[in-house]
Specification:
The chain has 501 residues and is an alpha+beta fold. It folds into two domains: 84-361, 3-Layer(aba) Sandwich (Beta-lactamase), CATH 3.40.710.10; 374-500, Tetratricopeptide repeat domain (Serine Threonine Protein Phosphatase 5, Tetratricopeptide repeat). 45% of the residues lie in helices and 12% in strands. The protein contains 17 helices and 14 strands. It has helices at residues 2-45, 89-102, 128-132, 152-161, 176-190, 194-206, 237-244, 261-272, 279-286, 353-361, 374-383, 390-400, 408-419, 429-443, 448-460, 464-476, 486-500; strands at 50-56, 59-66, 68-70, 75-76, 83-84, 226-228, 232-235, 258-259, 290-291, 299-300, 305-308, 314-321, 326-332, 337-343. A hairpin with a 2-residue loop joins strand 1 (50-56) and strand 2 (59-66). Helix 2 (89-102) packs antiparallel against helix 9.
């Protein structure tokens, strides 16, 4: 009887502790939901648009859309909005390769010569493992971008004729083309189209019905339109695929798959419960094999990047995008947490998954507010102002962005878009561009390239004297080697001197 009473008492204590723990977790998750939601709602007022899912220990803390999926038709972003996952496609390709390993159709040690008998000698011994870890030595890609429709045989002939960057297996060099090769190997080994194999062996078992290139029959009102610089509408990726009737080999296997936060969460659940791959192959998928960066901050697995948090826990992650759409996937297996982000207006301000990761594990952390991006605020200012207000524009940029501008290429790119009237027709575009380039020389006075850009703008404005000074300063600061702008700067300076004298 005494033992029974003791057992009952212990059971009650255990249940009470569970209730307290659950109550504490509920309070924590409610607080986190409000904190993250407020952060993103404020961001949406400054142009952020997208959907996000945050979950921990099996509980969804936040799953919501923000801003507009389609500005023209005033369609809000939802949790069911379809958008591209970009290079996160690579982990699907890697998983498909390991599924074929499970089916005994291939091995990761197999050389390319097994699948491409006529491959050149310097590439015949490249293994699938080396392709999966970006250590093959192959270049990043060929052709003119994602939608350059190069016929399959021509694509691989050109790719295999390129010079290797390094000896296979010796170091990491990111190669989209390497994953295109893996997509073709999936087709050769399975006898199926790449997307069809993924759909039947990965997506359907995971319960994912909104993921793919062509197979899902999406409602057009659920497909996100993209906005370059959060300004210019570029339409949907689906419409681009439909226009050419295929997924090009520049994209297949390495990027461009479309999905939703709902489906990508189902993928997380399927992987962690070994529904797609057995435990030994899942471990193979997420084992770090090679340093991605020399500083050792990250390592590459099979289609995933592996980090270690400040909490000394493992992070499985990858992101992807095309400078318009952006997707981030952050998975913390030891802490059973995941963050899934989509946005249709990519900028560094919109890449909010990592600040949210900090919120998830540090109650005291306060993220910097999401600001309007540099291009958006500059073009909006110019549209509603005149040249007498250039100093006000400089003040706005200095106040809101200078601390965040880490690279001179940001303002340089902005200046050239204004100079070339790429976003909108701007009166006095040269004068506005000079304003931006001058600010860049203030922020990065020892960067020769920014002085070269300023010289070009002064030349277009027929201010030859100051243009000469700018070009001279640029060449004084020129690097000793790998100067891609020096020759044009020398020619421009010579021409200005001849014209002037």
């Amino acid at each position: 009887m005494k033992k029974t009473l003791t057992l009952v008492f212990c059971t009650i204590q255990f249940l009470m502790s569970l209730t307290i723990t659950n109550a504490q977790e509920l309070e924590e998750y409610t607080t986190l939901n409000s904190k993250i939601d407020n952060y993103l709602n404020e961001g949406a007022e400054n142009g952020f648009s997208g959907s996000i899912l945050v979950a921990k220990k099996g509980e969804i803390i936040l799953h919501k859309g923000y801003g507009m999926a389609n500005k023209e038709n005033k369609i809000p972003y939802k949790t069911t909005t379809v958008s591209t996952i970009g290079s996160v496609t690579k982990q699907f390709t890697a998983t498909a390769i390991l599924k074929l390993v499970e089916l005994k159709k291939l091995k990761v040690e197999d050389p390319l010569s097994k699948f491409f008998p006529k491959i050149p000698n310097d590439k015949k011994d490249i293994t699938l493992h080396q392709l999966l870890t970006h250590s093959s030595g192959l270049i990043d890609g060929i052709g003119e971008g994602d939608f350059d429709d190069i016929p399959m045989e021509q694509f691989f002939n050109i790719l295999f004729s390129t010079k290797l960057l390094h000896k296979p297996g010796t170091k990491h060099a990111y190669s989209n083309a390497g994953y295109s090769i893996l997509a073709r190997i999936i087709e050769i080994a399975s006898g199926q189209n790449y997307e069809l194999f993924l759909n039947e062996n990965l997506f359907k078992p995971a319960g994912m019905r909104q993921t793919g290139y062509f197979i899902p029959k999406w409602d057009n009102n659920l497909i996100a339109s993209g906005y370059a610089l959060n300004i210019v509408s570029v339409g949907t990726l689906v419409s681009r695929y439909q226009k050419i009737g295929k997924v090009t080999w520049n994209l297949k296997g390495n990027g461009g798959i479309l999905s939703t936060t709902e489906d990508m969460f189902k993928w997380y659940q399927a992987l962690k419960t070994y529904k797609i791959l057995p435990e030994n192959l899942f471990k193979k998928l997420t084992t770090p094999y090679i340093l991605e960066h020399e500083n050792g901050s990250s390592q590459y697995a099979y289609g995933w990047v592996i980090y270690h948090s400040k909490r000394n826990t493992k992070i499985i992650s990858h992101n992807g995008g095309n400078q318009i759409f952006f997707h981030d996937y952050i998975w913390m297996p030891e802490e059973d947490a995941v963050i899934i982000l989509f946005t249709n207006a990519s900028s560094k301000e919109a890449e909010v998954a990592w600040p949210i990761e900090k919120m998830l594990f540090d109650r005291a952390y306060k993220a910097n507010p999401i600001k309007r991006n540099l291009y958006d605020i500059t073009f909006d200012f110019i549209k509603n102002s005149d040249l007498r207000q250039t100093n006000e524009l400089i003040s706005v940029i200095k106040k809101d962005y200078c601390s965040g501008i880490k690279n001179p290429s940001e303002l340089n790119s902005l200046g050239y878009r204004i100079l070339n009237n790429e976003i909108m027709e701007i009166e006095e575009n040269v004068k506005w561009a000079i304003t931006i380039f001058k600010l860049n020389t203030e922020l990065f006075p020892n960067e020769g390239n920014v002085w070269d850009s300023l010289g070009e703008a002064y030349t277009q404005d027929n201010q030859k004297k100051v243009a000469i000074k700018s070009y001279k300063r640029a060449l004084e600061l020129a690097p000793n080697e790998n100067c891609d702008w020096c020759e044009s700067s020398i020619k421009a300076l010579d021409k200005l001197r001849k014209d002037r004298y």
